[in-house]
Amino acid sequence: MKLYTKPGACSTADHIALQWTGKPYEFEVMTREALKSPPYLAINAAGSVPAIVDGEFKLSQNAAILGYIADLHPDAHLAGDGSAQQRAEATRWLAFVNADLHPAFVPLFNPAAFHPDERQHDAIKAAARKRLRGLFERAEKQLEGRQWLAGFRSFADPYLYITLRWAGAFDIDLIGFENLAAFKQRMEADAGVQAVLKAEGLD
Ligand SMILES: N[C@@H](CCC(=O)N[C@@H](CS)C(=O)NCC(=O)O)C(=O)O
Q1: CB of 142 closer than 6 A to ligand 1?
Q2: Residue 145 Cα, ligand 1 centroid: separation in angstroms?
Q3: I want to staple 50 with a disulfide (CB 3.0 to 4.6 A). Which of 11, 19, 41, 125 is the partner?
Q4: Using a 6 Å cutoff on CB, does residue 59 contact ligand 1?
Q5: Which 3 state secondary structure label does DSSP give 134?
């Protein structure tokens, strides 16, 4: 299987998940230009990461890719112990990160997509920061008494970790969120996470 990723992007979560399987994989670090090249657009017409190619099979969309990795490697327990309830719990938190947290960053990544007038951008970013604090508060509460979002280590965790890195880069106020701070440290103490950060030039 080959993963297409960009350093520190949401695709780095898939990279960590692959690393946690302990099984061989390939990866390619993409540039912005390479994402828009015809060969890559034939893999993922959206021109974004992540995407994977596994033999003839091509797959995009983070949630689908993480589910595919988990299903191929059940021994890695990325979606729990095989029970429907643990899979649902892991998927619930993956959905929270992929569908709520991640899109809430888009006004910070690209405020021009929300208003053409640059004078509006500070207000757009301030609203996004406020919303993100509220979303991270939900994760903070969920992590009370738990080491991992779903209550066991799952594919939701590397994705939450990546959004915490973005929170640092975009000055999101996480003051007082001790559980999230401990979670980030836990991830960064993990040998697999460290190997992926190094491989993507982020160490
Ligand atoms: N809905 C997509 C979103 C993917 C996405 O937003 N990817 C970003 C990186 S996190 C991207 O590749 N953006 C294009 C770029 O950076 O040029 C998914 O869940 O996979």
Answers
A1: no
A2: 32
A3: 11
A4: no
A5: helix
Ligand 1 pocket residue status of 35, Cβ below 6 Å? yes
What single-letter amino acid sits at 75? Answer: D
What is the rounded average pLDDT of the residues 115-138?
97
- In angstroms, what is the span from residue 53 Cα to ligand 1's centroid? 17
Closest CA to 120 of 133, 131, 130, 107: 107
Q: Which two tokens stand for residue 7?
A: 């350093």
Question: What distances in angstroms separate CA 142 from CA 12, 37, 59, 151, one per listed residue?
Answer: 23, 41, 30, 9
- Local structure of 51: helix, strand or coil: strand
Model's pTM, two decimal places?
0.97
Cβ–Cβ contacts within 10 Å for residue 11, how many? 25
Does residue 150 carry a pLDDT above 90?
yes
**CA 191/CA 113 separation, integer angstroms:** 38
- CB 125, CB 49: distance < 8 Å: no
CA atoms within 13 A on the CB side of 68: 19
| Structure tokens, 78 | 């990325």
Distance 62 CA to ligand 1 centre (A): 9
Helix (H) / strand (E) element for 53: namely strand 51-54
